[in-house]
Amino acid sequence: MAELFASMSVKWALDKLSSLLPASLQVATAPSTTSEGLEDLRMLERTMRRIHATLHDAEEHWIIREESAKVRLTELKELAYDAEDVVDEYEYEANRVSTEVFERSLNTCNGKRLSYTEFTA
């Protein structure tokens, strides 16, 4: 049962990461706009796909009796949760940067910087 939850969790994080990759290309100030940053995200995506496949195979086909196999599977699940945390942090940072860009564009009107009181008046 734990493998099923871990597999679903990895799948959710993988879907989120896959949806973030194209978005990061559109936001010029996103944290992953460097080619190195994008490659890191793509590498994480590939790794998460392998983790998901392994966990899915384990829940479907494996009868795990060896203690070492249980330890490796537990470590793999922990790694999957760590990867999910990285995806969440990336999503947060990308949203924060997008919000800052949006707020800057709202504060500038025809080249004139508006103060908060002018904007709300």
From TrEMBL:
Keywords per UniProt: Leucine-rich repeat, Nucleotide-binding, Plant defense, Repeat
Molecular function GO labels: nucleotide binding
Transmembrane segments: none
Limits of the Disease resistance N-terminal domain: 10-98
Coiled coil residues, start to end: none
UniProt keyword Nucleotide-binding, yes or no: yes
InterPro entries attached to this UniProt entry: Rx_N (IPR041118)
Any single GO BP term: defense response
Any Pfam family the entry gives: Rx_N
Family to which the UniProt record says this protein belongs: Belongs to the disease resistance NB-LRR family.
Entry protein name: Disease resistance N-terminal domain-containing protein
Organism annotation: Oryza sativa subsp. japonica
